[in-house]
Amino acid sequence: MNTMTNRKAIIDIGSNSIRLVVYSYNSLQGLVEHHNFKTVARLSMYIDSTGNLNDDGIQLLFETLKKFKEILEDIQVKHVFAAATAAIRQAKNKEEILAYIKSKLGLSLNILSTDEEAYFGYLAVIHSTKIETAVTIDMGGGSTEITLFVNKELIHMHSFPFGAVSLTRKFMKNAEMTQEEIIQLREYVNEQLLSLTWLHNVQVPIIAIGGSARNIAQVDQQRKNYSLNGIHQYELLSTDLQEISSQFAQCSLVELKKIDGLSSDRADIIVPALETFRLFMEKVNAPSFIYSKRGLREGIILSQLVEKFPLEFNLNEVGQNAVRHVLGKFNVIEEDTLHLYAIFTSIYDQFVEWNYIEPLENKQLLRFAYILFYIGEHIDQDAASQHTFYLLTNFNIDGLSHEERLKIALLASYKNRDTFKQYVSAYEKLIHGNEYKKLRDIGALIRFTKGIDVLGRSNIKDVMLTKSTEKIVLTFSVSGNCLLEKYQAEKLKKHIEKIVNNQLELIF
């Protein structure tokens, strides 16, 4: 799929907001988001006592879609899928709404069933995280979709006919929720959750989708002064939700709007959403609450792409694909980054056996770091280390936890011990104890191996290691000329000598 000429648009007509997002996909760069426009519409607030979306709500929908259509015409995007969820789905006059929009704008609205909405969220999650078994919760403005998947296979799904906006409308009489109203809300949500026996005490992570979950994750990052950028796959504990709940309980609406990380247009509906998440976490007895940036819209796109490109969407290779797509942003082919990787792993394995290096628990991270080593040189070769570290600590990389992404950034950007110390200093809360030395030494080994691959087509074929009390000897088997490799190896061997605390002899 050509990035520039095959862009597709998703219009997500939710109960709280209406959003237009334009995507494209190609195998090199993956799914690329080009544009993202949002209008806070609160359509569920326009459902009248008879169950119809009233005239004001219909007009608001029309004006928003008219504006979006003009944008699409201006940027010449013709492929549009407009998905309507709870607010339109629950409206008794939905057929009239569809006919009106079609006649006025020529735009066909697709009303998603509750099962479709739940499925698309699940699909987005399993293709953007490595978590094999979990419960998802997608809390919108007018409905809440729940799924349970095991080994990435969908087992159960359910939709509750309430969301952040409708709960606010039902239980909050004034600008702020009273303690009595919160108690009534909790009783109602608990009663709803009791019906889902498959949910009770399953003790798996919760993966949360949607704007309310995103805001809660952002608030947690701000209050912790969290140093690593990116929100996708950010993890909270039940104690975090409790502390945020206590913080919100002490705030007026005006004060809530000033909280860092909380959108002012969501401040009035965040308390019902948070209380629902807390009760949900208790019912599941979940060890963690993880935010997924990928949700309904990505699920709709993925449902088309998985069918068209099945080999590029292996559920067991989410991290591998994401790393390949990072390379693709710089037009780098993965195979071109793996020269001398076998040499690196031979030295690494021997150093682990000799107790010079403590091994990484996840050896796959070694490969990712090696592949991404000095990716920043494609921005500026003189500042390759700095750009690499900045890029990898700011990119969202599907299938990698925040801690794993930081480890890869430290390994892939290694220049020397001083710069490593400088990089780690901002992330001391995330890198603990012996992790520091382990990552530093592995980074130095990657730096050495990558450094001797001067031309990207090294003649080094194998390596043999021997040691004595006086020195470590690395004997490289080569075919052809290796003058440049010898020069670089002698220049960089100091990185290895610091690991082994011994002299290093190089034989070619």
Question: Quick recap of the structure?
Answer:
This protein has 508 residues and is α/β, with parallel strands linked by helices. 45% of the residues lie in helices and 17% in strands.
Characterise this structure.
By secondary structure, the protein is of the alpha/beta class. It folds into 3 domains: 105 residues, 2-Layer Sandwich (Nucleotidyltransferase, domain 5); 182 residues, Nucleotidyltransferase, domain 5 (2-Layer Sandwich), CATH 3.30.420; 191 residues, Hypothetical protein af1432. A 6-stranded mixed beta sheet has the order 8-7-6-9-11-10, sandwiched between helices. Helix 1 packs parallel to helix 3, helix 4 packs across helix 11 and helix 14 packs across helix 16. The longest helix has 20 residues. The chain starts with 7 loop residues before the first strand and ends with a strand.
What order do the helices and strands come in, and which of them pair?
Blueprint: E1 8-13, E2 17-26, E3 30-40, H1 55-74, E4 79-84, H2 86-90, H3 94-105, E5 109-111, H4 114-126, E6 134-139, E7 144-150, E8 153-160, H5 164-171, H6 179-194, E9 206-209, H7 211-223, E10 235-236, H8 238-249, H9 253-256, H10 270-284, E11 289-291, H11 296-308, H12 318-328, H13 341-353, H14 364-372, H15 384-394, H16 402-412, H17 417-425, H18 435-452, E12 460-467, E13 471-478, H19 483-500, E14 503-507
